[in-house]
Amino acid sequence: MKKNLTNQKGFTLLELIISFGIMSIVIFGAASLYVTSIRGNTAQIERFIGYNLAQEGLEGVRNIRDSYFRQGLAWDGSSAEAKLVEAPFLPGTYRIFRKVALSTPSALDQKEAAFAASPWIFQACPKTQNCDDQLYRVDGGGVPNFVHKQDIVTPGMTESPYRRTVTLSFLKDNGDKSDVVTDRMLVTAHVDWMDHGTAKSLDLSTEFTNWKQRPF
């Protein structure tokens, strides 16, 4: 017997177009969600790195202060007996970063020995121009290190999206706003970076004191 083919149904062109349209919407939505998720994760990682860089800036200043204490010097580096960093603690904006490698000359006097032993480079930003606060990444021993550009470019140094400055300002006594207390200091680490064309930044602040002289 011959089969009746008049009752068999197929997809019309309109139905195919609608089906492909629905599939395209579903696929596009899933892809967009995936891209958004990746960007969100990347933004969180970048912010985490930025937070660590700001925290490192604060800890660097703390380390310098404590190093002066260990040397029996003034907490702000104003003593002339020795020098641990390139600039003493004065109100202003600074660059701070860890040394990539420590050099130990054969003959050192007290100042040079103290400076060579310090793991930090602490430089005052010029007041007459913008501070060159661009950070560069140096990979060494599996641990990345972020430094500011030096006169001699370190091999393997690559530009990072981060910029960092540390601002020092002495606090005023609560009893008399006109008197500046030189053994209380507000330290603020500022880090900014670009995230897919959008400027991002964060600030971390803490108060340092000359606790060997005055408790707070």
Task: Walk me through this protein's architecture.
This protein is an alpha+beta fold and 216 residues long. It has one domain (13-209). It is 31% helix and 32% strand. The chain has two helices and seven strands. The longest helix is centred in the N-terminal third of the chain and has 58 residues, at 13-70. The protein is elongated and about 90 Å long. The termini are far apart.
Number of domains: 1
Please provide the count of β strands. 7
Radius of gyration: 29 Å
Mean pLDDT reading: 77
Main β sheet profile: 7 strands, antiparallel
Compressed to H and E, one letter per element, the order equals: HEHEEEEEE
Shape annotation: elongated
Question: How many helices does DSSP assign?
Answer: 2
Termini separation comes to: 105 Å
Helix fraction, binned, reads 25-40%
Return the structural class: alpha+beta
Proportion of residues in β-strands: 25-35%
Would you identify the regions where 5 or more consecutive residues have pLDDT less than 50? Answer: none
Based on the model shown, name its key terms.
elongated, 216 residues, alpha+beta, 31% helix, 7-stranded antiparallel beta sheet
In short:
The protein has helices spanning 13-70, 110-117; strands spanning 92-98, 120-124, 134-140, 143-148, 157-172, 180-195, 198-209. It is of the alpha+beta class.
What's the helix and strand layout?
Elements: H1 13-70, E1 92-98, H2 110-117, E2 120-124, E3 134-140, E4 143-148, E5 157-172, E6 180-195, E7 198-209
Antiparallel strand pairs: 1-2, 1-5, 3-4, 3-5, 5-6, 6-7
